[in-house]
Design a protein that fits this description.
heterodimer, A: mainly alpha, two-stranded antiparallel sheet, 5% strand, globular, B: alpha+beta, six-stranded antiparallel β-barrel, 34% helix
Chain lengths: 183, 282
């Protein structure tokens, strides 16, 4: 569990570090890139959040793990307080995403780098759209939806796809160690 | 089809309502709740650790980079140094003259008096919510609410909205808020005094200043600075340079579009400026 918390905390800070230190802006011009390293980490962990059982020498998985929910909730609250200042947005979104993943995707998608990049594309489209929708409902957003898609969503998807390629090996090696401890 | 559990539906509706209530409640409050402040401080300490590590590595790389350009820079700086001396002498003279004139007038502190402080950025979120950054100085370092904030290049970027023990929050001027506008004026054109910094066009990366009178002659490249009349932000802080001018929709005023070096996305450290002159509320 301590390993998990360290991994999650690192990726929580990574979002921030990418924004502050990576000189993306001169490269991409007017486009805005939103890094989603933490969300990638959470989604990938959902796939590893299960215990394994051995019955008659056959390994079968038990999908009752609830650590991903707990982490989504706790880090969602932290995310809200530290990054947005509005309570309830990411807390709810992260939990919804984890719920949907567990309900519909966790059994049907294999864990490999390409499928995870594809999955993250979908998840980020949903997450960014939901945030934009909530923000434009409640406060004034200085951007039209099509502009948002063109200048924010597409570059973010591209960047997060690239990011996933780099962080996938690190994350899987860490999560495998955690999974072995559940057994 | 499986029958939907009533309890589940009720639970989902309750969650949505709680979400809306907490969002509405925290949006309305000016200051954060006490637990939120403590958590912000705690998280900011952790973030500072991570950023310190990355900063060290980053510093090493840039140092090596700088080594290769030292000679050129040295030549340039030497050339500038001679100029600098002249400017310093002139400045000292002007300052002395200004002080004596102020004494003569007995005005005390004016709108241009200010104090500067540096701070590192430790938190930034780029999504569509309130655009603010978190810095690593708080009430321990005498940060106060409503201090003006400049970017590294010296442009106005926002003001302090929340001060915790070891961290504070800065609201950026590109975030649209009907209650916080900045009074702006064109440098050297005192008849443009009514200007208001109204917002930010994120697509073209331009700031928008409205309410400049029809009779003011605006040229491309004019400097727009703060006028200090809003009562919060000190005067004579650079906002940007005029890029283009348009007549407003009602035909009575002009709207200026300003460009500036850099933008709001890569901020690693900022400069805080406190206003010493007494504002109207005091």
């Amino acid at each position: 569990m301590i390993r998990l918390i360290i991994v999650f905390m690192t990726f929580f800070a990574l979002d921030n570090i990418i924004v502050i230190f990576l000189p993306l802006q001169p490269l991409v011009g007017n486009y805005l890139v939103i890094p989603n390293a933490f969300l990638s980490c959470l989604c990938l962990f959902t796939f590893y959040d299960r215990g394994a059982k051995y019955e008659n020498g056959v390994k079968s998985f038990d999908y009752k793990g609830n650590k991903s929910f707990l982490l989504a909730l706790v880090f969602g609250v932290l995310y809200d307080i530290f990054y947005t200042g509005v309570l309830g947005v990411y807390t709810c979104l992260f939990c919804i995403i984890v719920y949907i993943l567990r309900k519909f995707f966790i059994l049907s998608i294999p864990i490999n780098i390409l499928s995870m990049v594809a999955l993250m594309t979908g998840v980020i489209i949903f997450e960014e759209w939901a945030v934009f929708f909530l923000a434009s409902t409640i406060i004034h957003v200085p951007m039209a939806f099509l502009n948002f898609v063109q200048y924010v969503l597409f570059p973010s998807l591209f960047f997060n796809g690239l990011l996933m390629l780099f962080i996938y090996p690190i994350l899987t090696s860490q999560f495998r160690k955690c999974q072995q401890k559940f057994d | 089809m499986k029958k939907m559990n009533h309890l589940k539906v009720f639970g989902i509706i309750m969650i949505i309502f709680t979400l809306l209530i907490t969002i509405g409640y925290t949006m309305q409050r000016d200051t954060a709740l006490l637990p939120a402040r403590i958590i912000t401080d705690a998280v900011s300490i952790v973030q500072r650790g991570y950023i310190g590590v990355v900063d060290r590595a980053n510093g090493l790389i840039t140092n090596i980079n700088h080594l290769f350009r030292t000679y050129e820079e040295n030549e340039l700086l030497r050339a500038q140094m001679y100029n600098e001396q002249m400017i310093r002498l002139e400045r000292d003279q002007l300052r002395a003259e200004n002080d004596s004139l102020k004494e003569l007038l007995e005005t005390g502190e004016t709108l241009t008096d200010n104090e500067k402080m540096m701070a590192g950025v430790i938190g930034r979120n780029l999504d569509q919510w309130q655009d603010f950054i978190t810095i690593n100085k708080g009430s321990q370092d005498d940060v106060e609410v409503d201090m003006a904030v400049l970017s590294r290049e010296g442009y106005l970027i926002g003001r302090v909205i929340e001060v915790n023990q070891v961290s504070s929050r800065i609201q950026l001027i590109n975030y649209q808020n009907t209650t916080s506008k900045v009074a702006a004026v064109i440098n050297g054109k005192p008849d443009s005094i009514g200007g208001l910094l109204q917002g930010y066009d994120s697509v073209s990366n331009e700031l928008v200043v409205t309410n400049i009178g029809r009779d003011v002659e605006v040229e491309e490249g004019d400097e727009v600075i703060t006028s200090g009349l809003g009562g919060v932000i000190p005067s004579a802080l650079l906002i940007g340079y005029v890029e283009r001018v348009e007549i407003s929709a009602d035909g009575l005023t002009q709207t200026l579009y300003l460009s500036r070096e850099g933008n709001f996305n890569n901020l690693d450290f900022v400069i805080l400026i406190s206003r010493r002159a007494v504002s109207a509320d005091d």
